Protein 1
Amino acid sequence: MKSGNALLSSYGTTIFEVMSRLSEEHGAINLGQGFPDDRGPADVLQTAADALLTGWNQYPSMMGTPELRQALAAHYGRFYGLGIDWKTETMVTSGATEALTACLLGLINPGDEVVLFQPMYDSYLPIVRLAGGVPRFVSLKSPDWSFSRADLEAAFSPRTKLVLINDPLNPAAKVFDRAELELISEFVQRHDALAVCDEVYEHLVFDGRRHIPLMSLPGMRDRCLKIGSAGKTFSLTGWKVGYVTAAPHLLQPVAKAHQFLTFTTPPNLQAAVAYGLGKEEGYFTGLAAGLQAKRDRLSAGLASVGFDVLPSAGTYFVAADISRFGFDGDDQAFCRWLVAEAKVAAIPVSAFFVENAPTNVVRFCFSKKDEVLDTAIDRLRNRFVSS
Ligand code: PMP
Ligand code: GLN
């Protein structure tokens, strides 16, 4: 019997699916996979429903509906002062996952080097490899997930085609500061490289921080491909509506990949996202403020039962060091034990590494109702404190 693609066959099922299945099996509270447990903004949902019933439900343009592309360009002008030409510089995709895949397949030639920061989202590396790219890693180390000039010197080379950066960073909940972004942009420019910027958590940043698109730094406007996700911005992760913004000469090859991947994205969802991107400032600040309060609630709870909680500057996530528990096993074993014994699911952070993985850090998702977070902490307390 002939077998499937060797590279893809070498990967197991993603950790998110694995932990969500285990969570269901054990009747656990799922603080593993990152998704909110509320219904999302009612007006955005209503716009999608109306568009489904009364709008056009045939193929929209492969680049996305003009309405959504215009809304996106206006949104990035409003929030970041970016001047984007919607006709030549925006494209709608079926989720950020597709946007990432289209960027990597559209830009990488076999043998090109790709700089990846670990921890990294699980879809990056398989796609870089499928495209024939050669990964070069920069490993960020907990607790502050920082990196140095020397780390970049070691990873970049004359063969570097692009760097893939995720800011805010899942699972580390790090938001890159301006100095770090400037350092990355210096290397990108010195090596005449590109940057694929996975900025899906752009609106989920806390404590008065503001997200800085790498594209907004001097010299980077025409080197960056900025990726966003309506799933995160509107707490509707199942919708899978993403977008890529980039200079025409970068967007064109990416559109070539997109046309053979999904070609287009449901028009009613595009209508609703176009509406949503135009919402008033208060919606976006309220989203971040609400999540910040949940971060604080879960972080305090985790600390009270003995976890060493790491700072979380953005995303849906907080990471925690488990060394203090003296658990006999790594983070993967700890998460499997936790879901079965405490009935709380988390994600082992080593799943986001391919080398030099820490084995003492786990990730919890806090984008859940307060009572769900409280019940999770009660369960952990019963296991760690009362036993
Ligand atoms: N990148 C990162 C860092 C993510 O956490 C996610 C969340 N799934 C994605 C990309 C994919 O987003 P989407 O659901 O829009 O495909
Ligand atoms: N981005 C989500 C997370 O990190 C999961 C998405 C997925 O399940 N593929 O939890």
Note: The pocket of glutamine (ligand 2) is lined by residues 14, 16, 33-34, 170 (CB under 6 Å).
Protein 2
Amino acid sequence: MLHPFPTNDRSSARLRLAAALAASETEIIEDLLPRAQPDAATRQRIDRRAQALVTMVRAKGNKSIGIEAFLQEFSLSSREGVVLMCLAEALLRIPDADTADLLIRDKLADADWAAHLGQSESMFVNASTWALMFTGKIMRFEPTGEPGLGSTLKRMITASGEPVIRRAVGTAMKILGRQFVMGRTIEEGLARAAPDEPKGWRHSYDMLGEAARTAADADRYFESYARAIAAIGRASAGRGPIDGPGISVKLSALHPRYEVAQAQRVRRELGPRLIELARLAKHAGIGMTVDAEEAERLELSLDLIDAAMNDASLKGWDGFGLAVQGYQKRCLPLIGWLAERARAANRRLMVRLVKGAYWDSEIKRAQERGLDGYPVFTRKASTDVSYLACARAMLAAPEAIYAQFATHNAHTLAAILELAGNRPFEFQRLHGMGETLYGEIVTPDRPCRVYAPVGSHEDLLPYLVRRLLENGANTSFVNRLADEGAPIEQVVADPVATVSALVTKPHPRIVLPRDLYLPERRNSQGVDLNDWGALERLDGEIAQAAARNWRATPTGRAPSGGRGVYDPADPRRVIGQVI
Ligand code: FAD
């Protein structure tokens, strides 16, 4: 075998999960629909509750929904929204601070922030716009061209000099930061969260920052997680993984080569790191959830999680958990596999069901690589249906899964309340989002955990952009909610009914990667080097080709003699002769 397969798990649950990647979207959705469908009476109650929630949130007005208003103002259809996105995307790939500063200067100065001033009813949006505008203009040392504002600013610069403006920018950035970030340090975050906890708000802290690029990055993130776990443990003061605060970790932050091609190394190096953090969390008496990342890393992450789940030192601790993404075609079999593995390990997992934050890039990546299909659904309503079917499966396995439902969608929330009845579970939302929605329903008996990013505003942008992409999409609930022109019945339309009406076909505008360029030509075909099944098939084909002794001779020459040709991947191996 040429490829080091990281999994030895050939159980039928695992094979079902793997098979769903290649299955057609229609086939999967037809299986999910009846599992997601409530009876008629329940459906009516869900609709009524969802509509009431939307009416309530709209009545409270945009002013109270900070990030939603921000995302509405800086949508991806505005130049400034796109600038923010490009900037963050590019920043991720710039290794040194000086070049990053140059890029920020270039991009922020380039956009027309002034046009957004006063456009929103939200104080927060206007404050953020000021911050961005100041940054843009001051970085170039130019006064702004805004009438009235320009001359004031000019006077300020001449009178007090640049440092004053910088302080003003600093303050405005803090306002921006405070909206999206729980605290600059874990201690600050814990202190800010504490007063809300008796009301039913729980927290899971996320140390901001993106994937590790180097071993030094990974070490730094490990240390930062370890320090945070200790601090959260002190604050939790024995409340345990369910009632107390916890931590969310990203595997990509803990290893610079967290990828399938490095599976053996990842298993050897990242596996023990994850277990070590889990031990610290167990010792601190808190919960630890592994965030879900790109679909291509799913199988690899499951092997690491399975190893941790079965590690003897973690026995008796029910705080270990992971996030699963409803938009993935593999989500339902994944829940089946998790429940089976948790039972086998005699433990209960904390499972956070999300819809998934990487939809755009999943689609784009599959197209670029010319893959056979997509790992995710192509219709928003299909993701919603999958979410409900998965929620039911989780609620049906309480001995193996502690269910956590992360959503800002009023329909999804109303459906969960109905489906769950009196069974134990918690809601989850992101800090800075969904406060009004959950404000009405959260009590100590109906708790909601807040995903609380911690870090400085320098680390915030990539996170902010993920939220911008997600909520700026016209299919997103938050976007529809903020659009006063959208009728309530449409905003909370029942996804099961929507999908049934569409006859479960994939989205017609998102054709399969191979059909992208039709009718001119077929897209070139790629191999999914992250899919075990594809790798296994490839291995077979390579072995077959390697078993043959290849000969290249000019026509008319006797096929004897010649010079050996060597395998470029293994220069010791002769693959044939050429004359
Ligand atoms: P909705 O508007 O109802 O749903 C939006 C979602 O629908 C999109 O994000 C996408 O997933 C899906 N979607 C949009 N268009 C389409 C389409 N055309 N076809 C198919 N699907 C589509 N995300 C992660 O990936 N990993 C995590 O670990 C993670 N952790 C989170 C933790 C918490 C506490 C929360 C609240 C969120 C987390 N998220 C995570 C982000 C989460 O995925 C998004 O916030 C969520 O998808 C938004 O869903 P919604 O129900 O709030 O909104």
Note: The CA atoms of residues 128 and 176 lie 6 Å apart.
